[in-house]
Write a structure and sequence with these properties.
Order of helices and strands: HHHHHHHEHEEEHEH
Strand order of the largest sheet: 2-1-5
Oligomer: single chain
Number of domains: 2
Number of strands: 5
Structural class: mainly alpha
Number of helices: 10
Distance between the termini: 14 Å
Length: 286
């Protein structure tokens, strides 16, 4: 393979990765922003809990309002992630465009409305589950605090408890130690946007197989000490585009393939890259 083409390929792949990282950061910022706004709303709603006797009727009204707040913010997160998933899906086809451009092939991007809708709905269901779980934790915590703590300690304990349940506060984000509901949302988001990216990359490769009969794919692990042992072993494993990778005893068509178990897919940072031995050389990814 001509060295100039190799350099051009790698430069274009780096641009894809930069776009990927930008989109992922945008998604995570949405989660942290909504968690912060929700925390402030809840604490504002519960300001009266810090003084005086607690009226059970008013407390129940506040809890109803809080449940509505949680629903609203989590719905906003699901909607925002759904839009960003569209961008990840389109980005998944970009590698095919690079191959077509380098070797003067026709390029037709795949259409994936059914897959995108299914992925967005699945992600929204997961977020809804976290929303319900968060409501139960917040309600249980507030009731325990309201009827079991001295008034002068409620302000501090209330703030500390809500931050623990919701997570995503500025300090933990900066330290890279996100907890609570924000961590659950981050895990889902990172996993599902990566999944739609890998899926559309695989779909695009299959669509190009007629033009490139020897089109292959290679599993590339992010080897930095945090990778799963099975994924490190799978690094640079090559398969025809229609064949599955062997990863940790499971058959995966691409990283984060839903056919795999959660322990083999959740938070996976691996990539699958397409290549043609006849066009790019057998040892291109060695």
């Amino acid at each position: 393979m001509d060295s100039a083409i190799r350099i051009k390929y790698r430069a274009k792949i780096k641009r894809i990765e930069r776009t990927y990282n930008r989109l992922e950061t945008e998604a995570l910022k949405t989660i942290y922003r909504e968690a912060t706004a929700l925390r402030r709303q809840i604490l504002g709603e519960l300001a009266d809990l810090t003084v005086g006797d607690i009226d059970r009727r008013l407390l129940n009204q506040s809890l109803q309002s809080i449940n509505a707040m949680i629903d609203s913010h989590f719905d906003d997160i699901a909607t925002a992630i759904g839009r960003i998933m569209e961008d990840f899906g389109e980005l998944g086809t970009a590698e095919g465009e690079i191959i077509a451009d380098l070797f003067n092939l026709d390029f037709v991007p795949v259409s994936f409305p059914t897959q995108l809708q299914a992925s967005a709905e699945y992600t929204a269901d997961l977020i809804s589950t976290i929303s319900g779980d968060t409501q139960r934790k917040v309600e249980r915590f507030i009731k325990t605090l309201a009827f079991g703590a001295a008034g002068e300690t409620r302000t501090f304990e209330l703030r500390k408890g809500i931050i623990k349940i919701l997570g995503g506060d500025g300090r933990s984000v900066r330290k890279g130690k996100v907890t609570g509901a924000a961590f659950q949302l981050e895990r889902i988001t990172r996993t599902e946007v990566s999944r739609i990216y890998s899926l559309t990359n695989q779909m695009q490769a299959k669509a190009m197989n007629d033009q490139i009969p020897d089109l292959m794919k290679v599993w590339l692990a992010n080897v930095d000490g945090r990778e799963r042992p099975a994924h490190r072993l799978a690094n640079r494993q090559k398969r025809h585009i229609d064949k599955a990778f062997d990863v940790g005893g499971e058959k995966l068509m691409y990283p984060l393939d839903p056919a795999g178990s959660a322990k083999n897919t959740v938070f996976c940072r691996c990539r699958s890259r397409m290549y043609s031995p006849s066009l790019m050389g057998e040892g291109f990814f060695d």
